[in-house]
Amino acid sequence: MYPSAPLYLVGQRVKRLRYAALSSADRAADYRARRNDLGEVFGTRKAKSQIRSEERNKVDISAMQGIKGHLMESIGETAADDKSAVVLPSETIPQPNMTTHDVAQVYPRSSLCSDGEWSSIDAKTLLRAKDDEERKGLLPYRKVNFALKKIRLAAGSGSSSQAKKDTA
After folding, report:
1. Which residues have a Cβ under 8 Å from the Cβ of 31 and sit 6 or more positions away?
2. Residue 109 in this model has a pLDDT that exceeds 90
3. Contact 135, 151 (CB under 8 A)
4. Which of 22, 50, 133, 146 could form a disulfide with 27 if both were Cys (CB 3.0 to 4.6 A apart)?
């Protein structure tokens, strides 16, 4: 048996273009191609399957060029082009009154809470409650530490040490 001769891969290069700067897209494509070649040869099974799936999921832009004109014709005019289109405000964020000079009127109560909700709130019983446990029983949710602190401050009860303990 004869030992196998070493295999040398020979490629031609133009010396003038050896150090020519590639564009960033060409550089990225070249890097990706070299990385995929190394991954196919030396990578784990998981890495090889990932490389194959990335190549399968690549979008061929040249195939989309013929469809572009047809899609642009089928879209037509959108509502955004119409100047008379009314943009509805978000239902969760009230619109502030930017023309007022009174801070209390920037967000009026009617924009924060509807009249039906306002009439259903019974603040007198919350303020008359003796301690936090009784107040917590009157509220619809049990995990309302922020609201309890504000109610305690409004009622004028509770010591500052209790308030400090709640903020920690």
Report:
1. none
2. no
3. yes
4. 22
Give me the amino acid identity at 59: V
Report the helix count and the strand count for the chain, using DSSP H and E.
Answer: 9, 0
Residue 88, helix vs strand vs coil: coil
**Rg of the chain's alpha carbons, rounded to an integer?**
35
113, 94 contact by CB (below 8 A) = no
User: What is this structure's pTM?
Assistant: 0.29
Domain range list for the chain: 20-59, 113-167
- Convert the pLDDT of each residue in 81-107 to its tens digit: 555 555 565 666 778 888 888 888 888
Which amino acid would we find at residue 37?
D
